[in-house]
Amino acid sequence: MTWKNFFTSSIGKKILMGLTGLFLICFLIVHCGVNAMIFFNDGGETFNHWGHFMGSNLIIRTTEIGLFLFLLLHIVQGLLLWAKNRRARPVNYKVNNAASNSRWYSRSMGLLGTLILLFLVLHLYHFWAPSRLGGIGGIKVLEETTLGSEYNNQPVHDLYAEMLLVFQNNLWVVIVYVLGVLSLFWHLIHGFQSAFQTFGINHKRYTPIIKILGIAYSVIICLLFAAMPVAMYLGWVS
Amino acid sequence: MEHYNMNLTLKVWKQSNSREPGAFETYPVQNISSEMSFLEMFDVLNEQLIRDGKDPIAFDHDCREGICGTCSMYINGKAHGPWEKNTTCQLHMRAFKDGDTIVVEPWRAAAFPVIKDLMVDRSAFDRIMQAGGYISVNTGNAVDANSLPIDKKDADLSFMAASCIGCGACVAACKNSSAMLFVSAKVSQLALLPQGEPERESRVLNMVAQMDKEGFGNCTNTYACEAECPKGISVSNIARMNREYLKAGLSAD
User: What is the CATH number of the domain that holds A173?
Assistant: First the structure.
């Protein structure tokens, strides 16, 4: 058994999906945690400080490369699995009562993933590109701001101002973001607990806990994410 | 339960062999008793078709008592029809009412090519079994029963996995035509017992390799297989096979 044989087998592919998925789940905790600093409603002071910390930290920047690699692997594997699974059923049923034996979102991981990817393109264009590639092509450079004395008066990228710019007066952007987060929610509800089953963790006492954790995680993360553009649009955070 | 007769409209998949494309044909059937089984209803229809000089509908059946796994049929969008934990031969016509239209299709999977009409070739399952679904035993006299102590819990779990009849409803119900429930039941029943120990690692690696070679899809944990399994095989077997595969795959040379 070579590594190639292991990771290209049907179970190996799913293990890769689960591992990269769990990495992305961990990433979302950090991403959501830092972004939730906007709810301090202090003109973005705390948020910009931690945003600067994330952007200027060697460990985080190195992990960012891993994040993109794992995200790419998750997407490519997803597409390969989708293609293989389509080949496995060349003729579809005329009548198929799938709703009677499984949940719609567990059967729609590919579709939900595609919606998340489409949303991600817009999201990277709004925030990641101006911050990392500022000035390239039509992408504008982020303005700089100076933090207060509490944060040593550092000059930092004003990502908070960028958030206000993107969300404050653009209803359609807010709607797209909420829909993107909704796709993420259903993807996570299935993906979180599904990863553990793929790793072989199915136990009378632990599986119910994993399922509850997965639901709690998906609800909390997605509610917080969806609240950000909505709060800025409605002026709760300014 | 009160007996009644019914008239039905059947829409049945007709396909002359694996190479020709198939199509649905509509058949009216009259005077079907609510106490008939679904297959007996097909017998009535086929006798009528033979009398009329038409081609009868080919379908798989053998024991007709729910234990052999031969009967298939995807009935109104469900493997083995509307009843839970049930085979087609044990589905009774009282599940339907007068005037119903019933759509009957074969199992749909690239690994189960249609032989004719509703019959599919499930020899892919046999080849997976040949790849590792066995144990080594010495020839000679049979060993005394209970000479090997086995934990009651493991014996029960193994027996539950062994109750898989290999009907293929899990593949038919899975959106990806994955055979993970079948293969995991066969891997589990032997992995749980001391008799299965010698081939424990090679078994799971070889059976999964054969499963992939046959063209079954991947498991995405929708658990449609468990819901549609006539024997109620649990998806915890799939987790066990994933564990066995991880262990064997990571430790093999």
Answer: 1.20.1300
